[in-house]
Amino acid sequence: MPEAAVETVEKREPQTVRAAEKFEPNIVAFCCHYCAFAAADLAGVMRLQYPANTKIIRIPCTGKIDIIYLLRAFEKGADGVFVAGCLEGNCHFMKGNIVARKRVEYTKKLIKDVGIEPERLEMYNLSSAMGPRFAEIAREFTSKIKEIGPSPLRPKRAG
Amino acid sequence: MSADNEEKRDNVRGSVLIVGSGIGGIQAALDLANSGFKVHMAERQAAIGGTMAQLDKTFPTGDCSMCMISPKLVECVRHLNIEIHTLADVLEVSGEAGNFKAKILKYPRFIDLTKCVGCGECPAICPVKDVPDRFNERLSSRTAIYRDYPQAVPGAFVIDKHGPAPCKATCPVGQDVPGYLAMIREGKFAEAVEIIRRTNPLPLVCGHACFHPCEFNCERQYVEEPLAIRDLKRFAMVWAIEHDSGMTPPAPAVERPEKIAIIGSGPAGLAAAHTLATRGYKPTILEAAPVAGGMMALGMPSYRMPREMLELDIDYIGNMGVNIKTGVTVGKDVTLAQLKSEGYKAIIIATGVQQGTKMKVPGEDLPGIYQGLKFLKEVNLGHKPAIGKKVSVIGGGNTALDAARTAWRLGADVTIFYRRTQAEMPASEEELEAAWEEGVRIEYLTAPVEFSAGPDGRVSSMKCIRMKLGEPDKSGRRRPEPIPGSEYTVNTDMAILAIGLKPDPDYADGVKDLKLEKWDAPVVKPDTAETSLPGVFAAGDLVQGPTNIVEAMRAGKDVANVVDAYLSGREYRGVIEKRIDPSTLRREYFINPHWELDYSNVTRAPRVEMSLRPVDKRRGGFDLVELTLSEEEARKEAARCLECGICLDCRECIKACQANAIMHDDQERTIEVNVGAIILAPGCATYNPSVRGELGFGRYPNVVTSLQFERILSASGPFQGEIQRPGDAKHPHKIAWIQCVGSRDEHIKHGWCSSVCCMYATKQSIIAKEHDPNIEATIFYMDMRAHGKDFDRYVERAKNQYGVRYLRSMVSGIKQSPKTKNLKISYSDEAGQAKQEEFDMVVLSIGFEPHGDAERLAKTMSIDLNNDRFAATGDFTPVCTSRAGVFVTGVFQQPKDIPETVMMGSAAAGGAATLLAKARGTEVTPKKYPPERDILGEDPKIGVFICHCGINIASTVDVAEVANMAKTLPNVVHAENVLYACSQDTQEHIKKIIKENSLNRVIVASCTPRTHMPLFQETMKEAGLNPYLFEMANIREQDSWVHIGQRAIATTKAKQLVNMIVAKSRLLAPLPAEEISITNSALILGGGAAGLSAALSLADQGFPVHLVERSDLLGGNMRFLHSTLNGSDVQKFMIELIQKVNEHPKVTVHLETEVKKIGGYVGNYVTQLSDGATVEHGIVLLATGGVEYRPTEYLYGQDSRVMTQLELENAIHNGSPPKQKENFVMIQCVGSREDQHQYCSRVCCSHAVKNAISIKTARPDASVTVLYRDVRTYGFKEHHYLTAREMGVRFIHYDPERKPEVIKKGDKLVVKTFEPQLGAFIELPADRLVLSAAIRPPEGVKEISDALKVPFNEDGFFLEAHVKLRPVDFASEGLFLAGLAHAPKSLDETIAQALAAAGRAGLLLSHDRLMVSGIVSEIDKEKCAVCLNCFRVCPYDAPFINAEGKVEFNQIKCQGCGLCVATCPAKALKLRGFTDAQILAQVDAFAELLP
Q1: Contact B1040/B1000 with Cβ under 8 angstroms?
Q2: Does residue A17 have a pLDDT over 70?
Q3: Class of residue B577 by CB neighbours under 10 A (exposed 0-12, middle 13-18, buried 19+)
Q4: Across the beta sheet with B1155-1161, what order do the strands follow?
Q5: Which chain B residues are within 8 Å of A48, Cβ to Cβ?
Q6: CA–CA separation, B758 vs B1273, rounded Å?
Q7: Ramachandran assignment for B62, one of left (phi > 0), alpha (psi -120 to 50 degrees), beta (any other)
Q8: Residue B1413 class from Cβ within 10 Å (0-12 exposed, 13-18 middle, 19+ buried)?
Q9: How far apart are CA B119 and CA B1007, in angstroms?
Q10: Cβ pair A52:B1044 closer than 8 A
């Protein structure tokens, strides 16, 4: 976890944390077909339980990630977005995940500039055999976003 | 099929059998199936994948093993032309190369492969939970119904059934004893009752009065005592009564009109009636006595056989529709003939044995003397016979005991007289004990000879004679013989005779034709139980003589089965199942591998003792003596079951399986396949280190094998990737690896090097440190054998970057510290010092050994094994066994790593393809599809199918609600729920719905697209739709399975996922399946061993070859070699090979030629050669070789006595053989493993050994000293290393920091080196100094790389597409490599790689056209600014500048990753199938349904 995220969590006041308990974040995950999506499948086969906040969009390689996808997700009200690809050095398409990481890092800066916490966006690497790690990421990221709270861009909803 | 093909088929088959399905077999299968051959794959296990599937990661790249192999497995199982036979063994092979017949035995899976969807509901319910998990190397347990691992292929489960358990085998009615015991243990009593009722027609009777033969064979007796099986049955059945559970019979599935009469309502008659009733008959029982039950009602006392229990059993049978008429004596009231005339189609006589046998002694008819059975009948019918005060009972069977205990209850003083001893007594021990307790006296070895009457005319005394035991009689018991003169008299006022029973022949009256035996039993045919009258059958004690309840029941069931077959018009001979002799069961077969016949670790648990009614409460009444177990007692007792047979046949899985896939009656069967060639890829076993006790494996829990450690590291392993000690789950900090366990050890006849252990230990230590950097890793080794490509760098990284400690040493033993369970390793270091060090955990790097079946397989295949029991192959024919047409790959040939195995897989496939070249394409079935419907201009019409997946999705997700939501979405014209989307009938249904609604998009919301997308895309094609108009939402793995119990949340998520995928699907477009034509010829660069071998193979496969060689001679480095390490003649081989190539009509050799320019792409290259020729070809095979390094060190070139190994070899053979007492010094690693050349040249150690042996053979008095860093004689080369040592060749280790020095002393050459054992420098005189010089890439690598755009590594060797799985391919399609151009390797390895490359190339060339994937990048030329960003990011070199100066994409090269799309600043690119619009639609849809 990047240091910035840890700081944010610690700085929060107790009442925000209490509020966070009711808040269910909406999270989009862009997962590459060969590793992260497969790891998510394995988590299922192993019946590893994790919060349902994350919805996966399957892409062939994280190298396909366009900054627009990430921004659009925030624009539409996602509270968190993560990109998950193969382990570094093991990308099915050689170096897609390396490129993806750069784009994610760059987008973090972009959203920070418009007032969205950069911790709402993350890049993860895992192999297809790491089902438990996928479940852990889903848990970890969800609780982190819960701590941060609703996105400022979250549309107001009736009720 | 054309007539031409028909003709070819007659002699050569176009199919191949592959034995084994590890990565080698899989590679061969895919290569062959993709190049026009039908493949049969026979695998012993239930899933394919072999050892590689067990590995966590692979060296030296750290790739996830499962990620690599899993797609290959899926490809295999989905391949139209690969037929996988799992759980199969090849039994027999006949025929010859080109046309073999193979018999394959297929063991039952007990699960229908076509129905099982792999959902995983069944193991959850399976009560057998402690079967050691083979896949996890016994570090965890699995259930009896299981699959090896979640990604296993086929994904179907399998039942581990090794039954019958001895209890079941012994039980005459075949009770699934372990099944109901397990249910009792689990507290599932209703299920226990159900299982008991399944095969037992009289469960309450048996629970109380069965003589329980099952207990005599219970395996638990080898631990302490057998289980109380009968008491547990009683417990379950009493529970059933109390809870009114299972007391009402289910209605039969069919009704049969045929009338059947059964004479006699004893256990045989009742069992027959029960069995017939389950088949839908309504038989009538005719009983002579006033009550039903036969001996159970009349013969047995009620303290042992409570009448209410019997009545309940009889009522149950009555409720099944059986009519029981009492008081009807057949023969008197009605005759058999009458019955027949009344329309009874079958009659079963089961009247049992009723008449007491006479003693034939004077006075036995006196009043006061009863027949035992008659006496019991009187009592049981409520007539009160006069009971004497002093009663004598004669006999030793159960009737005698029953009579004695009955008389005792009625107030008499009872003595039993038995003519033999207690040992011969037929009565059960329990009966005897109870009688003793109650005070019945027993006199052994005595018999009455006369009864005398008293004054009242009734019996008053009995004269007896003492007996002794003589010789055994027919029954095996010793015959009693009277002792003359030992007569004595006993006073008795009542005597009961119970010495034997025989049939009552009443039933035969009126039927003259019924043939009788001399003891009044009817004559029956033993295999059908039919009497001399057709349709009249007889069974039970009447036929078999007096037995017991459960034996009689068996007879009743048997005869009922015969009658059913008879009435159904089926063959009824052979219907009676053969009884299993329990003594023939092999214990090691049925025992749960948890125990391995070794019960030393089983916690002793005494058999539960049934509470008994106190003796003082027994007299005067007939209450039950044995009381029922409590629930707690029963569950505890049931838990003692050792679960013999593994699957306990409880059949609970049937209830759990919604897909109806379970087949407990599955049978093994044999099939025959006709194939042209056979490839053996059965793999190997790994060494079992418990054989070497000093390493503590099996005794110390924290000593594990490397394969176990592999599972420990694996995220899907037993500890989910946490590094733990198996002993106490503690996280270890100090881990030691011990190398060469079971390798390089002649004492255990494992003289070979296993080739991979040094590397996997290095890999494991690195991964362990990646898990936890604080782990201290130490590797105890003899020689570090990192002889593969880039392996040395990997070891250096382990040392320098990860801090792994490598300790050159010999380990002598391991001791466990009793308290901490830590392990003390004793070893001697390099200087020979004895040392000790403590570790938390020890990993034994176990080697390969031939698997247990190697010899049987060799015999079946008629192939030779070598001395080490691996498949024997030739030096120049590395994939050919001794039998033509039978090829071999992988570790069955020699220990080797994954890429070599894959390489050999391709080589074997290439070999088979060459052999069967003319039959290519004759046995494959191409699939035909209807023409694709043009959907251009149509609005999206989407059909959505939401899958229940049995209960896998539906139990968590409200699938109906999801379907209802889907219906409301724009463009969705159809949405529905289906039970199993993947089932065959649903595929048909989907096709129908597509047609009916003219759908142009289809969505299935079910499981993962990774495994199921191809299946549904196939359905699309069959329905005439483009397969890319299909999408999937994963609501199982990524929803229902990970949010169990959260119905609302999971349902909402499912809706969102469906909405998102519907949004994407609106924008889907049909993607073109383009094809390009290809030129079926090859260009091979390099005319050495690799180029020549590949050229010959490709030409023999029928493809024209252009072989381009830079020099003026063919042969390459072979020209300098004379013999192989094994002594084969290289020159002879080379000359023949060159001749074959030169003479081959398909080969054009271009000598002294270089490539000027290569243009084009896969399938369509055009090359200009320096000899002026322009060649069109479909592939390029790079075999440009390597050269021996010209050393600059050690006075090479300055002194003629200094030479390389190649020069020495040449000198020995050509004019300068070793002289008497000549001193040879060899220095290894000259130019290898140092400075910029951090790689091992792989062949030099063997080369040195080879030359040393040849020197010592010629001149035993010559001295040879080899100065080495690590002796790398991997595989069987190790034997030659040992030979060299035995011949007196000295090997002295040196460190790179202290390299040997060559000094000229006068005109003498002296080599100075540090001797580690002595701890001092020594000087060695050298008459000839031989340098093992490195292998270097030849000049011109850069030029070739530029011309073909292929990469090379920092040492100048070309880089294959994937170091593990694509060892002969380049990343760009159509380009292949082999030989030294790839990396240093020996001649046989070069040949194997060349054959592999030729095989892979042949695969490509065998097609006339290449298919292009639909998911590729597409460019909008208007938007493109030709900035060339896409050129920089594309890993496949797909973009190019066309003639107009515009960027274009080669769709063959594009692999569809989309990197370029995201990079393009002008947004001129799009990836078909994953366009920006489609992905953004998904993102927008995600937001639409937010809660």
Answers
A1: no
A2: no
A3: exposed
A4: B1155-1161, B1164-1169, B1174-1177
A5: 1042
A6: 13
A7: left
A8: middle
A9: 10
A10: no
How far apart CA B158 and CA B44 sit, in angstroms, is 13
- Dihedrals φ, ψ of B1485, to 5°? -65, -30
Residue A157 confidence (pLDDT): 54
Write out chain B residues lying below 8 Å of A129, CB-based.
56, 64-67, 714-716
Query: Are A55 and B1053 inside 8 Å of each other by CB?
Result: yes
Compute φ and ψ for B339, nearest 5 degrees. Answer: -55, -45
| Angle, helices A67-75/B1476-1488, rounded to nearest 10 degrees | 20
Determine contact, residues B361/B448, Cβ cutoff 8 Å: yes
| Peptide bond preceding B526 in cis form (omega within 30 of 0) | no
Which residues in chain A are closer than 8 Å to B62, comparing Cβ atoms? Answer: 87, 89-90
Q: Cis omega before residue B108 (within 30°)? A: no
Is A52–B1039 a contact, with Cβ atoms under 8 angstroms apart? yes
Task: Give the pLDDT confidence score for residue B1133 in this predicted structure.
Answer: 98
DSSP character string of B885-942: TEEE-GGGTS---HHHHHHHHHHHHHHHHHHTGGGTTSS------PPPPP-TTPPP-E
Query: Cα separation of B1161 and B1450, whole Å?
Result: 9
Of A93, A135, A157, Cβ closest to residue B1455: A93
Tokens 């003498």 locate to B1308
Q: How many CB atoms within 10 Å of residue B1296?
A: 10
What's the confidence (pLDDT) of residue B342? 94
Predicted-complex ipTM score: 0.89
Q: Are B222 and B590 in contact (CB under 8 A)?
A: no
What is the pTM (predicted TM-score) of this model? 0.85
Q: Sign (positive/negative) of CA torsion A19, A21, A24, A30?
A: positive
Would you report the helix, strand and coil content of chain A in percent, each value rounded to 5? 50, 15, 35
Alpha-carbon distances, residue B1451 vs B192, B1080, B1286, B1410, B1437 (angstroms): 63, 20, 61, 11, 11
The pLDDT value given to residue A15: 43
Query: In chain B, what is the straight-line distance between the N-terminal and C-terminal CA atoms, in Å?
Result: 60
pLDDT in tens, B1439-1491: 999 999 999 998 888 889 999 999 999 999 999 999 999 999 999 999 887 65
Q: Measured between alpha carbons, how far is B477 from B472 in angstroms, rounded to an integer?
A: 5
Radius of gyration of chain B (CA): 41
Q: With a cut of 70, which residues of chain B have pLDDT below it?
A: 1-10, 506-512, 1490-1491
Interacting residues of B333 by C-beta distance below 8 A, sequence separation 6+: none
Q: Is B1210 helix (H, G, I), strand (E, B) or coil?
A: helix
Secondary structure letter of residue B1110 according to DSSP: S
What pLDDT, on a 0 to 100 scale, did the predictor assign at position B509?
Answer: 63
Tell whether omega for the bond before B1435 is within 30 degrees of 0, i.e. cis. no
Distance between CA atoms of residues B1223 and B1238, nearest Å: 30
**Interatomic CA distance for residues B1282 and B62, integer angstroms:** 33
Write the CA distances from B1331 to B90, B386, B1129, B1201, B1334, integer angstroms: 50, 114, 23, 11, 9
- The token duo for B1304 is 């000229």
CA dist B1359 and B1019 (Å) reads 39
Burial of B900 (0-12, 13-18, 19+ CB in 10 A): buried
Report chain B residues whose CB lies below 8 A from the CB of A66: 1461-1462, 1476, 1479
Give the total residue count for chain B. 1491
Task: State whether A78 and B1487 contact (CB < 8 Å).
Answer: yes
Confidence bin at A12 (pLDDT 50/70/90)? very low
Rounded to whole angstroms, how far apart are CA atoms B218 and B228?
10
Tokens, residue B555: 């007879």
Q: Are B1279 and B752 in contact (CB under 8 A)?
A: yes
Q: Can you tell me the distance from the alpha carbon of B1248 to that of B1332, in angstroms, rounded to the nearest whole number? A: 7
